[in-house]
User: Which sequence fits this backbone?
């Protein structure tokens, strides 16, 4: 048996080659890999010796040769193929070990030039991988170090790889080539070709490339989709951001459903936007209760007060450690999913008897300024008929300095904090969204209505049902009030301060109404529609 090894990432390759040699497998290799193996005392034949043709063009041409591809592509079950190999003195290659030039990590580096990117486009590697993967019945193709252990185990046990394993390796190989080519296409399609693009400066990249190649890896099949007659599966980005939902570790409970995952994502994205202990309860994609507190218990208790009815069977997300006290309180209610960055052993013990509760542990993003560092998507995608809508994600963060006071009444420092809190929640509520808040907790949430007035009325009704007073609350509207009637409804309910984007033709009418009613109003200058 002959094995050809040509790897860019040499992690574990020496040990793997030593194990192959111990099994009596002849080693072939290229350039730097051959030198590494030879330095370790392994007998290895360089590809240049095999082909009788030296590497050339700075290594751009070394494996593109009939003695390589003939050895990979020849079908062992066809006499004419084997006769052709014999006529041209070509040996079969039975095992190919290749990982590709690091194109993805190269272009991810700050300051990567177009020349650097181009030089890290592998040619010979993908060609060999495709040849071996096409001839999977006769050739095992390894494209990742994580596959070494299984391959060695089978070779040691049976002396060869099973057909099932070789087919799985072939599929993985074609997937890797697809991912690689997709990354190259994405990058080159985004390059804004112009002055200096081939120089020593990084080219400008279009956020929306000329072709978009989604690269997702299936994590699991789901029992069904949004409804029981729909099929579904969960996929993750090839390189998921740290702290994103797909990186969660499930500690207990039933399998997550399609709706669980969608709601859990909404809850997690909202709760991780807070720097102090906070709790978010989501039901049917909308926050029905959000609050900050000194710890998990206080944050949850306040969030639950907003809408106890809707919280039944909800998704709960915390951005702080859940201890036994908090767990005991949460366990009194029916919960679908519970998420936190950490759980004490005592908290997990509380839920052991509630075996259906899905408990997820997620790491909070640590530092950094980019969307990736914060575990957020940079681009949102929505499927439409035979197409995609793509947009930059709504990652805008509002600060006090961004607010413009437009009324005679000036908001107090406490009101400003509540306005910012309400605005942060409104960003995660389906439009039209109206959110009443006070003291770092939601007091009433109106979501997803065709009329902003109806959203305001629903928020008031929910507060009344929960026994909460809206007197002195801060209100956030995700878009401007087109008429004064929307403002009147929230003030009639008890609001004393309002935050809205502004930008309506009738802004002055609404400002005059706020002055007439004696409430403070600030403009954010930013809209937060969520559909």
Assistant:
């Amino acid at each position: 048996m002959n094995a050809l090894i040509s790897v860019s990432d040499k992690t574990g390759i020496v040990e793997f080659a030593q194990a192959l040699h111990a099994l009596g497998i002849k080693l072939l290799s290229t350039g730097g890999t051959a030198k590494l193996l030879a330095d370790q005392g392994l007998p290895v034949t360089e590809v240049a010796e095999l082909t009788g043709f030296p590497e050339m063009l700075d290594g751009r041409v070394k494996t593109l040769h009939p003695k390589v591809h003939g050895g990979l592509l020849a079908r062992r079950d066809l006499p004419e193929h084997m006769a052709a190999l014999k006529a041209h003195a070509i040996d079969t290659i039975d095992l190919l070990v290749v990982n590709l030039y690091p194109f993805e990590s190269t272009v991810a580096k700050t300051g990567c030039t177009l020349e650097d990117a181009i030089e890290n486009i592998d040619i010979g590697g993908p060609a060999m991988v495709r040849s071996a993967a096409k001839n999977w019945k006769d050739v095992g193709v390894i494209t990742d170090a994580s596959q070494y252990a299984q391959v060695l185990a089978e070779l040691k046990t049976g002396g060869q790889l099973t057909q099932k394993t070789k087919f799985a390796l072939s599929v993985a190989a074609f997937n890797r080539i697809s991912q690689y080519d997709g990354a190259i296409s994405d990058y080159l399609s985004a390059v804004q070709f112009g002055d200096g693009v081939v120089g020593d400066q990084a080219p400008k990249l279009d956020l929306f490339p000329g072709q978009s190649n989604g690269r997702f890896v299936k994590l699991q099949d789901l029992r069904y989709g949004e409804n029981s007659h729909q099929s579904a599966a969960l996929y993750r980005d090839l390189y998921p951001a740290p702290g994103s939902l797909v990186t969660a570790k499930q500690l207990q409970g039933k399998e997550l459903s399609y709706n669980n995952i969608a709601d859990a994502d909404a809850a997690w994205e909202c709760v991780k936007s807070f720097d102090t202990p906070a709790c978010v309860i989501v039901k049917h994609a909308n926050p029905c209760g959000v609050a900050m507190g000194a710890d998990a218990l206080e944050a949850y208790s306040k969030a639950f007060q907003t809408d106890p009815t809707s919280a039944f069977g909800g998704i709960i997300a915390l951005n702080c450690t859940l201890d036994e006290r908090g767990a005991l309180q949460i366990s009194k209610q029916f919960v679908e999913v519970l998420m936190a960055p950490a759980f004490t052993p005592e908290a997990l013990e509380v839920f052991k008897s509630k075996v259906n509760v899905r408990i997820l542990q997620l790491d909070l993003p640590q530092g950094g300024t980019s969307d990736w560092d914060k575990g957020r998507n940079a681009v949102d995608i929505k499927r439409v008929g035979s197409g995609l809508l793509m947009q930059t994600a709504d990652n805008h963060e509002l600060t006090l300095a961004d607010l413009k006071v437009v009324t005679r009444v000036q908001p107090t420092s406490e009101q400003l904090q509540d306005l910012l809190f309400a605005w942060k929640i409104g960003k995660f509520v389906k439009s039209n969204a109206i959110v009443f808040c006070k003291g770092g907790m939601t007091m009433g949430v109106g979501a997803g209505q065709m009329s902003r007035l109806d959203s305001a009325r629903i928020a008031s009704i929910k507060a009344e049902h929960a026994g909460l007073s809206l007197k002195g609350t801060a209100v956030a509207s995700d878009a401007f009030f087109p008429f004064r009637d929307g403002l009147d409804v929230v003030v009639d309910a008890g609001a004393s301060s309002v935050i809205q984007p502004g930008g309506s033709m009738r802004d002055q009418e609404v400002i005059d109404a706020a002055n007439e009613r004696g409430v403070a109003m600030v403009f954010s200058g930013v809209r937060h529609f969520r559909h």
Remarks:
- The mean pLDDT is 93.
- The first strand starts at residue 2 and ends at 7.
